Amino acid sequence: MYLLRIASTSFASIIVLFLLTKIMGNKQISQFNMFDYINSITIGSIAAEMATDEVPDFFDPLIAMVVYTVVVVVIAYLTNKSLAMRRFFTGKSLILYDNGTLYRQNFAKSKLDINEFLMECRLAGYFDLSQIQTAIIEENGKISFLPKAGDRPATPTDLNLSPKQDKVLYSLILDGEILYKNLSAIGKDENWLKKQLSLNKTKNVEEIFLAVCDEYDNFTVYKANNDDNKNDIFQ
Fold first, then answer.
1. pLDDT tens, residue by residue, 180-202
2. Same domain, 109 and 48
3. By residue range, what is the domain housing residue 215?
4. 79 shares a domain with 98
5. Residue 135 pairs with which residues in a beta bridge?
6. In the sheet that 132-137 helps form, which strands lie side by side, from edge to edge?
7. Per the domain annotation, does 62 fall within a domain?
8. By three-state DSSP, how is residue 154 classified?
9. Is the pTM for the entire model greater than 0.70?
10. Distance spanning both ends of the chain, measured CA to CA
11. CB 100 within 8 A of CB 114
């Protein structure tokens, strides 16, 4: 009976966490600000307690999780409406380095030392500070770099080129299943798809792991291979 209770409350906590996350919105871990981080670990801790601890009432931790979620949603609304509230809850970006000058006070505010900053520079591909025009620490703790004009990668515009604009690829077959909505979205039908498969010497849709098409009707097929590739190319 005890194990059944643990299983049921764990399942319930997963469902509740999923629903609350959908309400709060999806964010990558790297996009979390301090307030998001505190709330995420708190809600996660409450969910774990609800699943495993001998709590007198199942609804006690559930109510706590809902309260935290409501607070997150309300603060998200306020930060969207007020710049002052946004800066209070999420912080603001700070210039760490600009045009050869390191700003010590902003390093202190960011709780960042010079060695960590230089490591972030190297990770971004800058081993020489003279290649950087400006470095800014963002609200989520990530550092953005503006390279000097002479050190940034050349673009087609720099070379007076006018390449075609790339567009998103539509997945038409995924794991052996035809995605009819995507097929319709590009103005094609199943007969066109079968013709493309025939040109790629493929008859059985189940053999295809992935098939994509771009706006220029360039059709690419990736067949499924059930063999185990044991070659370790990283050794």
1. 999 998 899 999 999 999 998 88
2. no
3. 170-223
4. no
5. 97, 145
6. 101-102, 94-98, 132-137, 143-147
7. yes
8. coil
9. no
10. 50
11. no
CA angle 175, 19, 26 (to 5 degrees): 70
Phi, psi of 108 (to 5 degrees): -65, -45
14 and 59 together in one domain? yes
The arrangement of strands across the sheet holding 170-174 comes to 177-178, 170-174, 208-213, 219-223
Domain check: are 200 and 176 in the same one?
yes
What are the pLDDT digits (tens) for 63-89?
Answer: 767 776 777 778 778 877 777 777 776
* Segment (H or E) for 24: helix 2-24
Across the strands, what pairs with 48? none
Count of domains for the chain: 3
Query: Parallel, antiparallel, or unpaired: how do β-strands 132-137 and 143-147 relate?
Result: antiparallel
The CATH number of the domain holding residue 205 is: 3.30.240.20
Where among 88, 104, 129 does a domain terminate?
Answer: 88
